[in-house]
């Protein structure tokens, strides 16, 4: 009888510990399921700063503005919102708007650009316009926000090899050009671009080897450079 009680107590403790550990998991590690949405006309992907401590109260608050979270984090959510909704939330003390840092690629001190404007200008001989079909190549993938593990798993499941991250929410990857379109169409992918040879060369090295390439935005060419991986 005593042994049975001890076993029950042990199982109860194990269950309690597991439950607590689940509750303490970061919201960003939760699985988003099928909550990928198509943006309504006139809407943007807005960052809404509202704390998760009171969730599901947070979702009830957002529902007042007809907002459905697309991605949830501890202190914010990403959701489609129009100007009227954003104005109403800001008026009520909830910061909402477009976080432009989500669009930046901060590869290094010399490679920083806003993907809404496309790739930065660079010398033609240090640029790849496109990869031929069925060709392995390096790319930058920009996500809509800090990644869920499910997003990473989906990328890998589609044949993407992730090498390293680039702030704030970008990854340098290797993938076959045949799956580029598939990756672009994933709902959590914001932008895909080729990891250009120009991004690999530190400016001081580039300028010493070829003064004609200073600055990086120069379109002049004519030097043979060794690309640093």
Total strands: 10
Given the C-alpha coordinates, what overall shape results?
Answer: elongated
Radius of gyration (Å): 23 Å
The chain-level mean pLDDT equals 78
| CATH architecture assignment of the largest domain | 2-Layer Sandwich
Q: Encode the helix/strand succession as letters.
A: HEHEEHEEEEHEEHEH
Distance between the termini: 68 Å
Low-confidence stretches: 4-37, 211-229
As for the CATH topology of the largest domain, it is: Alpha-Beta Plaits
Which sheet architecture does the biggest sheet show?
4 strands, antiparallel
In CATH, what is the class of the largest domain? Alpha Beta
Please describe what this structure looks like.
- By secondary structure, the protein is an alpha+beta fold.
- The protein folds into 2 domains: 25-98, Alpha-Beta Plaits, CATH 3.30.70; 103-213, Peptidase S8 propeptide/proteinase inhibitor I9 (Alpha-Beta Plaits, 2-Layer Sandwich).
- It is 26% helix and 22% strand.
- The protein has helices at residues 2-23, 57-63, 83-91, 149-157, 180-184, 203-209; strands at 44-49, 71-72, 76-81, 95-97, 104-106, 112-114, 136-143, 161-166, 170-176, 189-194.
- The longest helix has 22 residues, at 2-23.
- The protein is elongated and about 50 Å long.
- Mean pLDDT is 78; it is low at 4-37 and 211-229.
